TrEMBL record:
InterPro entries according to UniProt: 4Fe4S_Fe-S-bd, 4Fe4S_Fe_S_CS, PSI_iron-sulfur_center, YfhL-like
A Gene Ontology cellular-component term: cytoplasm
GO function terms (MF aspect): 4 iron, 4 sulfur cluster binding; metal ion binding
Domain of life: Bacteria
Pfam families: Fer4_7
UniProt domain 4Fe-4S ferredoxin-type: residue ranges: 1-29, 31-64
Keyword vocabulary terms for this entry: 4Fe-4S, Electron transport, Iron, Iron-sulfur, Metal-binding, Repeat, Transport
Name listed for the protein in its UniProt record: Ferredoxin
Statement: the UniProt record of this protein carries the keyword Transmembrane helix: no
Gene3D superfamilies registered for this protein in UniProt: 3.30.70.20
Length: 84
């Protein structure tokens, strides 16, 4: 699954620079995650970096974008231009 930022976001700015895929941007009211770029850090790290640094725990899995580990890894390969 891609991740999503909920409306509990306090705009603290710590998640955006942690995203290795550039999936997090400032939205109209809160930060947002682009699901096509979110790999939950698969391929980069063992854990989702935005979740690790979020002080209010407002970044759950997005139920509207369910993906397996293999799908997330495939997205990582596409985004980075790497091959298996």
């Amino acid at each position: 699954m891609a991740l999503i930022i909920t409306d509990e976001c306090i705009n603290c700015d710590v998640c955006e620079p942690e995203c290795p895929n550039g999936a997090i941007t400032q939205g109209d009211e809160i930060y947002e995650i682009e699901p096509d770029l979110c790999t939950e850090c698969v391929g980069h790290y063992d854990t989702s970096q935005c979740v690790e640094v979020c002080p209010v725990d407002c970044i759950p899995k997005d139920p509207d974008h369910e993906e397996s580990y293999e799908q997330l890894y495939g997205k990582y390969l596409k985004i980075t231009g790497e091959s298996e």
